[in-house]
Design a protein that fits this description.
Number of domains: 1
Radius of gyration: 18 Å
Structural class: alpha/beta
Strand content: 15-25%
CATH class: Alpha Beta
CATH topology: Rossmann fold
Helix content: 25-40%
Length: 322
């Protein structure tokens, strides 16, 4: 599990990985090896298959508690917000941005997680159905997340009875969360988020050493997957070191307290290690939780490792709102 010192070398050694985690990782590898590549069969076909429950892993059940609010986007589009509320008056809002490499994923594919967060923390979870690449390349997805944050900053009090704001997401959603925080600060003068739950996020699109060195082991996210997701989202030649694209390169002052969660067998390991240190160096509060053997997306697989990580994330968010 994550130790009190996240830079303890013993967390990163092969002996730190439990037998249960090794078994889970092998199941992931066996399940994904030989499977189709989304860029070969087409992103929409993969999305449709997942919606039918025909993906490599079981489809998460949909919450009967969920409701949809539609808001206006910057491009004249409508943005659905999926809302899952706790019982009683919420203590705050959790703006959730889902993962999927900016290409896959949807706001309704992690309802059990959002129900858990709502029930354990008292936060109303608002998950954004942002536009996906390659049909809608950058900055479409980022614009929709920004629009959702702006709307909530103005309307959360009247809509949910609270203006306490938190934000978070997994993988591409971690990236979008950081981008949204920066846009809200720089474009709208808003620094009111009380906390950020940044879960194995992609923070440097120039590709960190761990991204480049990960190789082709089928633990959810390989080097080639990162490259294909990036190329689909930013199809034109880009300066990937632009802080507007890679938040690791941004000025990070006036950011809220953050929890960075990462497993040691994740291609995005360096992203969290580097972003945590830059967050702290900018004068912000931050926690880093490192989980031995955790693969990309490990919090979705049952086991002691995911339970420890999810409990710590819930405690972090609960501590923010009191």
């Amino acid at each position: 599990m994550s130790g009190s010192n996240p830079f303890d070398p013993s967390l990163f050694g092969p002996d730190a990985e439990s037998e249960e985690t090794k078994t889970i990782n092998q199941v992931i590898i066996d399940t994904l090896t030989g499977g189709p590549e989304w860029w070969e069969v087409g992103a929409q076909e993969v999305r449709d298959a997942r919606d039918r429950g025909e993906g490599p892993f079981p489809l998460a059940p949909k919450s009967e508690r969920a409701r949809i609010i539609e808001i206006d986007g910057k491009a004249g589009n409508k943005i659905p917000l999926r809302v899952i509320a706790p019982e009683g008056t919420p203590k705050g809002v959790y703006l959730h941005l889902h993962g999927g490499g900016w290409v896959l994923g949807a706001s309704d594919q992690q309802d059990p997680m959002l129900e858990r967060i709502a029930d354990r923390t008292g936060l109303v979870c608002v998950s954004v159905e942002y536009r996906l690449a390659p049909e809608n390349p950058w900055p479409a997805g980022g614009d929709d997340c920004e629009s959702a944050a702006v709307w909530l900053a103005k309307n959360a009090k009247s809509e949910f009875g609270t203006d306490v704001m938190t934000i978070g997401g997994e993988s591409a959603g971690g990236h979008l969360s950081a981008v949204t925080l920066l846009r809200m600060r720089d474009r709208h003068g808003y620094t009111g988020f009380k906390g950020a739950n940044l879960v194995f996020g992609a923070f440097d699109l120039t590709m960190t050493p761990s991204q480049r060195a990960f190789g082709d082991e089928r633990l959810i996210l390989r080097t080639v997957d990162i490259e294909k997701f990036r190329d689909a989202t930013w199809p034109e030649t880009q300066d990937f070191g632009d802080p507007a694209i890679s938040p690791l390169h941004a000025r990070l002052d006036d950011m809220p307290p953050a929890l960075f969660t990462i497993g040691t067998r994740d291609a995005l390991l360096d992203d969290s290690l580097f972003m945590y240190t830059r967050w702290i160096a900018a004068g912000n509060k931050a926690e880093l939780a490192v989980y031995p053997g955790g693969a990309h997306g490990f919090i979705a697989f049952p086991g002691e490792l995911s339970k420890a990580a999810n409990d710590r994330m819930d405690d972090f968010l609960k501590g923010i709102v009191g």
